[in-house]
Amino acid sequence: MNDFSELRKEVSSWINANWDPSLDLITWRKKLADSGWGAPDWPKEDFGMGLSPEESSIIEEEFSKKGVIGAAQSGVRLLAAVTILEHGTREQKDRYLKPILTGEENWCQLFSEPGSGSDLAGATTRADLIGDEWIINGQKVWNTSAHHADFGLLVARTNWDVPKHEGISYFIIDMRQKEVEVRQLRQMNGHASFNEVFFTDARVSRENILGTEGRGWQVAMTTLAYERRSFDRARRVSSDMAGDASIYREYEMELEKANEPYKWYPQRAGRGDLVLETAIETGAIENAAIRQEIARFHVLNESAKWTAARAKAAQKAGQPQGPEGSLGKLAASRVAQSAARVHTSIMGNGALLTGEGSLKDGILAEVLVSTPAISIAGGTDEIQKNIIAERVLGLPKEPRFDSGPFRDVQKNADKSST
Amino acid sequence: MEYLFTKEQTQFRESLQNFFRKHSPTSEVRRLMETQLGFDREVWKNACGSLGLSGIAIPEEYGGSGFGPVELSIVCEEMGRSLYCSPFLGSVICAGSAINLSSANKETKEQYLSRIASGEIIAALAVTENKPMWGDENFVTAATPIDKNTFQLTGEKNFVISANAADVILVITNLEERATLFAVERDAEGLDISDLSVMDPTRKMSACSFDKTLAKCVGSIDLETLCSHVLIYLSNEMIGGAQQLLDSAIDYTKLRFQFGRSIASFQAIKHRLAELLLELELAKSACYQAAQALSDNEKIKERSSLAKSAANEAFLKAGLECIQLHGGIGFTWENDTHLWFKRAKSSEVLLGNSAINYERLLLAIPTVDSVLRRAS
């Protein structure tokens, strides 16, 4: 078994020769990007070293052990990077990849629309080629960090006369133009983690299409596949590194800004970890009826953890994914919603209050108004069930009504339909 | 195994599936459930002999194969799937575990376990008087000493699994306020075994009454631990049954055409099946972890009740959904679904429904237990 000791030695000696905490963050990361050590699993010609993900994680480990700041990872920048690496032209790679690693430029994803959520390929934001520019009109929604993004990954319709998946193209759009308007979207739990983005004759230069015209769906699949794989990772980027040098403060600020939209996510997942503790603190545990609810939740919560562990172990052992592998998201919805129910029982009248003065510094109140999001975001429960039924259980697909030219497909009955 | 079955365990499972496919098709289940005995002695002999099933639970030193709880759970799961009619649960799981966990000396254990392992005798375990959960009983059955090891039992035990076929009935009642295991031979005077008219005919049960019946004292026993062991194996049996019901519902809905399409193409059906799969996989995780807990001898009380309540919910839901998804045919005697539905019901009641097990599992968590003790 390879313990990667050679690799560890190599990283160490590079760090010893190059790491300099007196540099500012961007200068350090430029050096890092040029060396290949910032993105070791990327190709050699694109700021990487062509190593495996496993080797890459060893390198990451060594960086973190030695308190060395790595390449920027936060937000959706890595989604942009993977997509550009796979579908981008030489010029696009040269232009965009390095500032992604250094953290100089921020990205956002422009996929969902008010009229196309689960049905992403039903996008109606349009891109029309006029001269050497694509002219963009329409609206996107649920765009995390769009308010401080420099560039967006945009899915827009370029052909209305072919079936929906074939008429989509994928663009890199400059967010810093006045024809792009970003408005923060306030959620029912009071946070504003997302934005709405409006395009009114916004421009994308002709060379900033990613992949070819009409092949945007395939490009979007790359982004989405990576998004699914890295669902938790991007949000868990946190720092346990500390030092006096100002580079650490810069780094902390970057993380804080990037993690801001996600700070209520633990509450969205239900905070099952607080159930027993709160029940004991409040004395609710002495109520036999509430104990029943607590135990029922405990069974679900533990079973869901073990199911996730089974899926992970199978994946690690290189076994084909069993049914347990596709159930994670649906199980997470159920856990979160059951947690909200049992928290409510335990809280009693306390569940009438909100804010920092309420139980557990307001965390439980936030659970109650945040869990409804979990069965919607990142694929609704209904879509998950369709996927499980068709791909895992092998049930036949439903008849479709959207296979003809997109122009003729019935859309939302509102004034904005084409 | 931690989270995955080993290659050997998977192969073992496959060989079991082959055996049960051959020897326990539903036609055979239907034939046997109508008989008084409830199983086929030849097939049972074969299962004990060539497959070594009855010896699986039993340590090597007592003539068993000494496989671990994980392998034994696999056997239970596959038996539950095929609804194999046999004295396995009553004799090997219940009675075998009771002897193994008792304070009896090695010699006494060997005397019973080696014969249970070879299939030479069938034993039954008589615990229940009034309550579904063994640990909740206040035993009324009286044990009066005759000499050091011999007692007279007087009282009644109910819902004794496979007592109709048993050569020896193992009885648990209190002796000087400690749960104690006694052995009663089938031909003992004053023993009356009367078969119960049970809803699930694939699992025979009897009422046993004792009137100054001679019994040998086997040893004392920790009832909670015994209860946890049996709960874990029963739960694993249950998820096998639930899997069979899910498979059957999937097969049927794919073949059934209404309104010009397979009903499995309707989301109303798909979503129910996806939900059921989730419920089942969650329960499987709980049951597999419980088997693992048994093998690590860790948190078995909590894990056993956790597994049982998860298996209860999954199996019952699978039964109800399978009937519903079959439509009218699912409510007929001719359709096989009711065989598993009734097994789900009988398994749900045995050793406590979910409500009872919810309470038991919470009380097994030390912090909860100490808070409640302080409160009362």
Written overview of the protein:
The complex is a heterodimer of chains A (418) and B (376). By secondary structure, chain A is α+β, with helices and mostly antiparallel strands. Chain A is built from 14 helices and 8 strands. In chain A, β2 and β3 form a beta hairpin. The termini of chain A are far apart. By secondary structure, chain B is of the alpha+beta class. Chain B has 3 domains: 112 residues, Butyryl-Coa Dehydrogenase, subunit A, domain 1, CATH 1.10.540.10; 100 residues, Butyryl-CoA Dehydrogenase, subunit A, domain 2; 143 residues, Butyryl-CoA Dehydrogenase, subunit A, domain 3, CATH 1.20.140.10. In chain B, strands 1, 2, 3, 4, 5, 6 and 7 form a 7-stranded mixed β-sheet that branches. Chain B starts with 6 loop residues before the first helix and ends with a helix. The model of chain B has no long low-confidence stretch (mean pLDDT 95). The interface between A and B is large, with 47 and 43 residues.
Topology:
The complex is a heterodimer of chains A (418) and B (376).
Chain A: H1 5-18, H2 25-35, H3 53-65, H4 77-87, H5 90-102, E1 107-110, E2 126-130, E3 133-141, E4 151-157, E5 168-174, E6 180-185, E7 194-205, E8 209-210, H6 216-229, H7 233-236, H8 246-259, H9 265-268, H10 275-282, H11 288-316, H12 328-347, H13 363-370, H14 381-392
Parallel strand pairs in A: 1-4
Antiparallel strand pairs in A: 2-3, 3-7, 4-5, 5-8, 6-7
Helix pairs in contact in A: 1-3, 2-5, 4-5, 4-6, 10-12, 11-12
Chain B: H1 7-23, H2 26-33, H3 41-49, H4 69-82, H5 88-101, H6 106-118, E1 123-126, E2 142-145, E3 150-161, E4 168-175, E5 178-185, E6 191-195, E7 205-220, H7 223-255, E8 257-258, E9 261-262, H8 267-296, H9 300-326, H10 337-349, H11 354-363, H12 366-375
Parallel strand pairs in B: 1-4
Antiparallel strand pairs in B: 2-3, 3-7, 4-5, 5-7, 6-7, 8-9
Helix pairs in contact in B: 1-4, 4-7, 5-6, 5-7, 7-8, 7-9, 7-10, 8-9, 9-10, 9-11
